[in-house]
Amino acid sequence: MVRDNGSFYSSNNPITLKRIMNYLDKITAGGRSANPFFCLMGIDVVSAGEGKAVLKMTVRPDMYNGVGWLQGGMLTAIADEAMALALYTRLAPGEGIATISESTSFIRGVREGTIIAEAQVIRKGRRVAFMESVVRMDDAGMTILSRTTASFTVTAEKT
User: Fold this and answer.
1) Residue 14, by phi and psi: left (phi above 0), alpha (psi -120 to 50) or beta?
2) Any residues with CB less than 8 A from the CB of 7 and at least 6 apart, and which?
Protein backbone atom coordinates (compact mmCIF):
# COMPACT_ATOMS: atom_id res chain seq x y z
CA MET A 1 0.00 0.00 0.00
CA VAL A 2 1.31 3.41 -0.95
CA ARG A 3 0.05 6.72 0.43
CA ASP A 4 -0.35 9.73 -1.85
CA ASN A 5 -2.13 12.89 -0.64
CA GLY A 6 -4.03 10.98 2.03
CA SER A 7 -5.24 8.18 -0.28
CA PHE A 8 -3.91 4.64 -0.35
CA TYR A 9 -3.10 2.73 -3.52
CA SER A 10 -2.16 -0.88 -3.95
CA SER A 11 0.19 -1.57 -6.82
CA ASN A 12 3.05 -3.86 -7.70
CA ASN A 13 3.81 -1.89 -10.87
CA PRO A 14 7.13 0.01 -10.34
CA ILE A 15 6.15 2.73 -12.82
CA THR A 16 2.90 3.37 -10.94
CA LEU A 17 4.74 3.35 -7.60
CA LYS A 18 7.32 5.84 -8.90
CA ARG A 19 4.60 8.22 -10.07
CA ILE A 20 2.53 7.92 -6.89
CA MET A 21 5.26 8.09 -4.25
CA ASN A 22 7.03 11.37 -3.62
CA TYR A 23 10.44 11.61 -2.01
CA LEU A 24 9.09 12.03 1.51
CA ASP A 25 6.91 8.95 1.10
CA LYS A 26 9.91 7.00 -0.18
CA ILE A 27 12.04 8.06 2.81
CA THR A 28 9.22 7.15 5.22
CA ALA A 29 8.73 3.75 3.60
CA GLY A 30 12.33 2.83 2.83
CA GLY A 31 14.58 4.92 5.06
CA ARG A 32 18.18 5.03 3.86
CA SER A 33 17.47 2.81 0.84
CA ALA A 34 15.28 5.54 -0.72
CA ASN A 35 18.34 7.74 -1.39
CA PRO A 36 21.46 6.26 -3.05
CA PHE A 37 23.66 8.97 -1.48
CA PHE A 38 22.38 7.98 1.99
CA CYS A 39 23.40 4.37 1.23
CA LEU A 40 26.85 5.40 -0.01
CA MET A 41 27.57 7.62 3.00
CA GLY A 42 25.73 5.61 5.66
CA ILE A 43 23.28 8.42 6.45
CA ASP A 44 20.23 7.57 8.54
CA VAL A 45 17.05 9.61 8.92
CA VAL A 46 16.45 10.33 12.60
CA SER A 47 13.33 12.45 12.08
CA ALA A 48 11.50 14.59 9.54
CA GLY A 49 8.36 16.65 9.91
CA GLU A 50 6.86 20.10 10.38
CA GLY A 51 9.64 21.83 8.44
CA LYS A 52 12.48 20.14 10.31
CA ALA A 53 14.73 17.15 9.70
CA VAL A 54 17.56 15.39 11.51
CA LEU A 55 20.09 13.09 9.81
CA LYS A 56 22.89 11.05 11.36
CA MET A 57 26.16 9.72 9.89
CA THR A 58 29.19 7.89 11.30
CA VAL A 59 32.54 9.32 10.18
CA ARG A 60 34.67 6.77 8.32
CA PRO A 61 38.33 6.90 7.18
CA ASP A 62 37.27 6.81 3.50
CA MET A 63 35.59 10.20 4.10
CA TYR A 64 38.83 11.88 5.20
CA ASN A 65 40.69 14.57 3.28
CA GLY A 66 44.42 14.23 2.60
CA VAL A 67 45.42 15.22 6.15
CA GLY A 68 43.06 12.92 8.05
CA TRP A 69 40.05 15.15 8.77
CA LEU A 70 36.48 14.59 7.61
CA GLN A 71 36.39 16.29 4.20
CA GLY A 72 34.44 19.55 4.53
CA GLY A 73 32.20 18.69 1.61
CA MET A 74 30.75 15.88 3.72
CA LEU A 75 29.53 18.42 6.28
CA THR A 76 27.98 20.50 3.50
CA ALA A 77 26.45 17.44 1.84
CA ILE A 78 24.72 16.11 4.97
CA ALA A 79 23.48 19.64 5.75
CA ASP A 80 22.11 19.97 2.19
CA GLU A 81 20.33 16.63 2.45
CA ALA A 82 18.84 17.55 5.85
CA MET A 83 17.62 20.92 4.53
CA ALA A 84 16.06 19.30 1.46
CA LEU A 85 14.28 16.71 3.61
CA ALA A 86 13.01 19.39 5.99
CA LEU A 87 11.69 21.38 3.04
CA TYR A 88 9.96 18.33 1.56
CA THR A 89 7.83 18.21 4.71
CA ARG A 90 6.44 21.68 3.77
CA LEU A 91 5.79 21.12 0.06
CA ALA A 92 2.32 21.07 -1.45
CA PRO A 93 1.33 18.20 -3.75
CA GLY A 94 3.03 18.63 -7.13
CA GLU A 95 5.90 20.80 -5.83
CA GLY A 96 9.57 19.90 -6.14
CA ILE A 97 12.81 21.63 -5.15
CA ALA A 98 16.36 22.36 -6.30
CA THR A 99 19.17 24.12 -4.45
CA ILE A 100 19.85 27.65 -5.74
CA SER A 101 22.72 28.65 -3.45
CA GLU A 102 24.36 27.39 -0.31
CA SER A 103 27.00 28.68 2.10
CA THR A 104 28.74 26.69 4.83
CA SER A 105 30.87 28.04 7.67
CA PHE A 106 33.23 25.38 9.01
CA ILE A 107 33.68 25.81 12.75
CA ARG A 108 35.53 22.72 13.90
CA GLY A 109 37.05 19.64 12.28
CA VAL A 110 36.26 16.04 13.11
CA ARG A 111 38.21 12.79 12.72
CA GLU A 112 35.88 10.20 14.26
CA GLY A 113 32.49 9.66 15.81
CA THR A 114 28.95 10.27 14.67
CA ILE A 115 27.64 13.57 13.38
CA ILE A 116 24.08 14.91 13.32
CA ALA A 117 22.67 17.44 10.83
CA GLU A 118 19.65 19.38 12.11
CA ALA A 119 17.80 21.48 9.53
CA GLN A 120 14.78 23.73 9.46
CA VAL A 121 12.76 25.83 7.06
CA ILE A 122 13.21 29.53 7.81
CA ARG A 123 10.70 30.71 5.22
CA LYS A 124 8.95 28.99 2.32
CA GLY A 125 7.46 31.21 -0.35
CA ARG A 126 5.73 30.25 -3.59
CA ARG A 127 9.01 30.15 -5.56
CA VAL A 128 11.90 30.28 -3.08
CA ALA A 129 12.54 28.69 0.31
CA PHE A 130 15.21 29.71 2.84
CA MET A 131 16.81 27.05 5.00
CA GLU A 132 19.43 26.58 7.70
CA SER A 133 21.28 23.62 9.14
CA VAL A 134 23.71 22.99 11.96
CA VAL A 135 25.97 19.92 11.97
CA ARG A 136 27.04 18.75 15.42
CA MET A 137 28.86 15.89 17.06
CA ASP A 138 26.52 13.25 18.46
CA ASP A 139 28.06 13.32 21.92
CA ALA A 140 27.40 14.85 25.32
CA GLY A 141 28.86 18.20 24.28
CA MET A 142 26.95 18.41 20.94
CA THR A 143 29.95 20.34 19.56
CA ILE A 144 29.00 22.46 16.53
CA LEU A 145 31.06 21.54 13.46
CA SER A 146 29.42 23.70 10.78
CA ARG A 147 26.51 26.01 9.96
CA THR A 148 24.91 26.08 6.52
CA THR A 149 22.32 28.38 5.01
CA ALA A 150 20.69 27.81 1.63
CA SER A 151 18.00 28.94 -0.73
CA PHE A 152 15.98 26.46 -2.79
CA THR A 153 13.74 27.06 -5.75
CA VAL A 154 10.25 25.60 -5.41
CA THR A 155 9.19 24.07 -8.72
CA ALA A 156 6.42 21.97 -10.24
CA GLU A 157 7.46 18.30 -10.10
CA LYS A 158 8.03 16.58 -13.43
CA THR A 159 5.66 13.69 -14.06
Assistant:
1) alpha
2) none
Determine the Cα–Cα distance for residues 148 and 151; give it in Å rounded to an integer: 10
pLDDT, one tens digit for every residue, the chain (159 residues):
333 333 333 344 454 344 435 788 888 888 899 999 999 999 999 999 999 999 999 999 999 999 999 999 999 999 999 999 999 999 998 899 999 999 999 999 999 999 999 999 999 999 999 999 999 999 999 999 999 999 999 998 666
**Domains in the chain, please, with CATH?**
35-156 (3.10.129.10)
What gap in Å lies between CA 37 and CA 42, rounded to an integer?
A: 8
Tell me 88's DSSP state: H
